[in-house]
Amino acid sequence: MNVNRFLQLGLAVFLLILSSCRVSHSCDGIYEGILPAADCPGIYMLLAVNGDKYELLEKYMLQPETYVTYGTVTHKGKLLNLDNGMELDFSDNSVRCRNVLLKRFSDQKELPEIYTTQLLKENLSGEDATLKLYEKQGKQYADFCFNEKKYTLKLNAENELTDEYVDSNCSLKLLPETQQLPLQKNVLFNNGTDAYMFTQLTPTPCLYTLVGEETSDVPSFLDAMYYNDGKQAFVKLIHTASGYCYTLLQTEASAKTAVYTDGTVEWQLGNNQNGTLIINRKKYAYTEQK
């Protein structure tokens, strides 16, 4: 065997070993779907699978909160076992959970930050902050970033009156909803020296119901979540039928109105707590519920 032939063979073996180290699971990606629930119309799920890790966002429909879980995945053939007890069956770009299909809509392996992080504004100074609430290994945490500092706080199980996250010096409380802001959080943060009050900016949850008689062409209600990552804004419209779940990018905006679309479906937000859903060039009016 000449030297060139030997080098070619060695290079081929090296590339084969390198490629085997980079093999990813065919089920990697982000999945979306609605699971049935006993105490609400359904649970919207956004699941990101990345090898032996996962990120899961859950939203109980008609309720403002979202829940994020980070954990590990065990693969057994086509079966995926999450460490939170969920078992998924992978097949043809979808996973089945409790006889419900969650369809893959992205090849990304992590949930975009915009889904998992809330934007806040301090009431007096107007300074921005971010808050991420999540569960990991059965424990609940809050990552809070303010004034160029990051605080990782753990849920205080002894406080039964309100959700409070603490460490040795700081505390963060999620205050009860008010009549003025029934679907938005107010956050009280104490760094051990000073106290700050924050108002949640995004995501902003809203509930819309169809105006007039119900029709099979569109859903009778839409659970909406408005997001903004500082560069672009969009709305996620959710319904119990997964075919009526849309993620729409904002294409127009003024002081009181906005337009969101994916090129096929359009959502027009009005200035009197109303919205218009446009599908197949037909318009359907919705009104916001307080």
Summarize the structure.
This protein has 290 residues and is mostly beta strands. The protein has two helices and 24 strands. It has helices at residues 3-21, 113-116, and strands spanning 29-35, 43-50, 53-60, 66-76, 79-82, 87-91, 94-97, 100-106, 118-122, 128-136, 139-146, 149-155, 163-166, 171-175, 186-190, 195-202, 204-210, 221-228, 233-238, 246-253, 258-261, 266-269, 274-279, 282-289.
CATH architectural type of the largest domain: Beta Barrel
- Determine the number of helices (DSSP H or I, runs of at least 4 residues): 2
Give me the CATH superfamily of the largest domain: C-type lysozyme inhibitor
Q: State which percent range the strand residues make up.
A: over 45%
**Class of the largest domain, according to the CATH hierarchy?**
Mainly Beta
Task: Write the element-wise H/E pattern from the N-terminal end onward.
Answer: HEEEEEEEEHEEEEEEEEEEEEEEEE
Distance between the termini: 80 Å
Which structural class do you get from the secondary structure elements? mainly beta
Domains (count): 3
Largest sheet: 16 strands, mixed
Overall strand count: 24
Description:
With 290 residues, this protein is mainly β. The protein folds into 3 domains: 29-113, Beta Barrel (Lipocalin); 117-201, no CATH class; 204-289, C-type lysozyme inhibitor (Lipocalin), CATH 2.40.128.200. It is built from 2 helices and 24 strands. The radius of gyration is 23 Å and the shape is globular. Residues 13-24 have low confidence and may be disordered.
